[in-house]
Structures are given as structure tokens and as C-alpha cells.
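During the second half of the funding period, the structural biology subgroup turned its attention to how the target accommodates small molecules. The most pressing case was shikimate-3-phosphate, which had performed well in the primary screen but for which no bound structure existed. We therefore specified the complex as follows and requested a full 3D prediction, including the ligand pose.
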Amino acid sequence: MTADVRQDQFTIRPGAALLGELSVPGDKSISHRAVMLAAIARGKSEIRNWLAAGDTEATLGAIRDLGIQIERHDANTLTIHGGAMRPADGPLNLMNAGTGIRLLAGIMAGQDFPSILDGSAQLRRRPMKRITDPLQRMGADIESSDGACPLHIRPAKLNGIAYELPVASAQVKSAILLAALYANAPTTVIQPGPARDHTERMLRSLGVDISQDGADGNTITLVPNQHLNPLDMTVPGDVSSAAFLLVAALLTPDSDLTVTGVNLNPTRTGIIDALTEMGADIALSNVSEQAGEPIGDIRLRASQLRGLEIGGETVVRMIDEFPILMVAALRAEGETLVRDAKELRVKETDRIAVMAAELRKLGAEIEEREDGFRIIGPQSLTGAVVDGHDDHRIAMSLTIAGLIAAEGTVVTDAACARDSFPGFAEALISCGARLLPSNSQKL
Ligand code: S3P
């Protein structure tokens, strides 16, 4: 990608109802895991509906640099010949992908060759001590640069450990579980609440002995095993991408939109619960199972919302959806109060500060709190030029805010939407939104 492409902007006009039925690209979390697990499994894995986006392409590139043979039938259909990794010629570049670098660090800690994991300037600002601490406790030889990447990893014998996660992070949990495959004894991870469990589901389906005990299955034990069976899966649609379209439909009068084939894993559906509690007219149908994950269609009709209070375990179940929830809260009657969401400050950007600052440019009043925010609605927005900050979920949330602003809105630095949702602008346009990708002023 060139620097120019990343500076694309979206111009949005409000007013048009969003109608019809569409699907969203494959789940980002599952797509990262699919290529990593296929790389370490023995034999030929088949992956369909894989997410071809900025973050996941970075992971795929790293896997290729590690000597794994990948057949790409089309952008979203891969055959991966796993089992024989070799040292890469240079540092592995995970670009903006936090999930990519943290999970891959767990795998690389167990290899018998050294590696260096690095990424973009944005990734270099994100905390890595949360994974280097537990991996070092397992005996891994892993060094960060002042708690950030690049990570230098050298071969070491790994021990099984019992580790209580200080934050409910699926990335940290997964890094430990992946390293645990190479340890000399079982590893137990205790999570404070139910963080997304795709790693556990996928490892189990590939034949790994992984069990969950305790209240809500929050104690997870993995018995070491480096003989993973190959993967054969169709990646479900990403509920985190669907959330932008659903909130757009909710807030745009006369909308009636259905997003099909969406992952409904209960560790990911906090946003559906939150919107339902806010009064959204939302209905699930065609619920079935795909690749060991629940999936279904979500229909949403424009609704008058009321504010709500969110804290505790729900936060983890919708950690990526707070930027878009902020937009919904602006239109909801009464107070929306979010607590226990300090993790938002260490995502691609400080998502509390950045969303509050950008939405203020549209005329919003938002009270920022250390671990969340408070919004009293409903509020009217005016059009303005806002900045996506090279953070995909910020750029997409601001685009949806533009749909409910009184005049035209321009989102600059919006090309990062492609990090998780390639075709985001086209999807919105296909259901009726008035949006122009690029600099064109004709709308
Ligand atoms: C992810 C876990 C979450 C989430 C990220 C994807 C994953 O991060 O924010 O977008 O795929 O495991 P944390 O686990 O650090 O909260």
C-alpha cells in the first residue's frame, strides 16, 4: 500500500435510508488465527471466506516469510501447507496488527530458531509487556524494546505455568495458549471474564486437549501438543464489521437492513445486547453453526434509542465496538455511561480521547472519563472535517456519524478502514448511503 492510498478520504451526506440485505467480510480475529494455526498444523489446511484486509494480510505475509507454502485461489480462499517453518530472512513486519504480533509471539517463543517481530510506528506504540511477562515466566527468551516492539525472540525450553491474566485480553490469553503448545507440562490461564474464545475453539477442533473449568469456564488448561490436525473452515462474517452497518441503519430514519452470516459467538455479541437494551428493533434469524462458531442473520430497523450503563464483563464482549457505540449514544434519549473500559486507551489509538475529540468537531458534547465516557442525548451533529487517525474503527465510526450529521462530513485518513473491513464504503453505498470514497466533491 502506498502512503497516498492510506490518505483516502470519505465524503458523506446524511439522510438516505439504508435498505436491503448484505454480508460482511470474514471475521478478523478468526482469520488471524486460521493462518497461524494452519501454519503450525501438519498437512494441508483449507480456509474459505478468509478476511483479506490490512491486518490479516500482514499476518499472512509473516507466515509466508517463515517459509510456509500458501496457495491463494482467490483473495479469500487459501490452501496452506503447514508444518515446516524456517527462519525468516529479516524481521517479520506485522504492520498495524496487534493481534498478529501478540499471537505470533506466542508461537515463535516455541520455535527452535530466532525471530524478530516488528510493525508500523503505530504498532510500536502499543504495550507488549502484557505478553512478554507471561512468556518470560514460561522460560521464553523474548526481549522487547522498552515494553514495545520490535520483539527479539530466541529459542528456549518452555515450562507449563499457571497464570492469572491481569487484564481480560484474548490476545494475551491466546499468546500464552499458543506458546503452551510447546511447553513441557500443561499450562493454565485464568481470565477475569469471558474474553473472545476463538483460539480455544479452534485448537480443540484441531485435536488439542484444552479444557475450561471454574465459574463461566474462566480457567483454561492446555496440555502440550505440537501435532495439530489441518484446518478446514469457512470463516464466519465479522460481527465487529457488521456493527457499523447496524448502527448506521438504527440511526437513519426508515432504514431496514439485514446483515447475513454474522458470527454470533457470545464472547463477541456484547454490542447486540447493548443495542437491544437501548431499544433497538433487532432480530436474529437463520441461526446455525459454522466452523465451531454460532452464526446467523441480523435484521435491524431504525429505532429511537435510550441511554444505558455499561460496565464489567459486557465491556470485554464488545471491546472493539465502543467507538460506534459512542455514535449511537449521541442519538439516544438520556444518559449513556461506560465504565471499566480503560483498555480502549491502548488500542490502535486512545479510542476514548480520539473519538471524543473528533466527535466534538461535529458539535457533540462528551464527558471523557479515565475508564470510559458519559454522553447525554439526544444530540444533533453538524457536518465537519474529521480525522480517522489511521485507526480503522475510528474512521468507520466517524463515517457513520457523518450519516446523521446535518450537513456533509469529510473523514480524512479513512483508507485504514481496509485494515479490517475492505469494501466498507462500497457496502454502505450498496444499501443506499450517500458516500463518496476519495476527494470528489460531487454528491
Ligand atoms: C482480539 C482481541 C481484542 C480486540 C482485538 C482483537 C483478538 O484485543 O480488541 O481487536 O483477536 O484476540 P485484546 O485481547 O487485547 O483486548
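Two results from this model are relevant to the next phase. Residues 1-5 have pLDDT under 50 and may be disordered. The chain has 15 helices and 24 strands.
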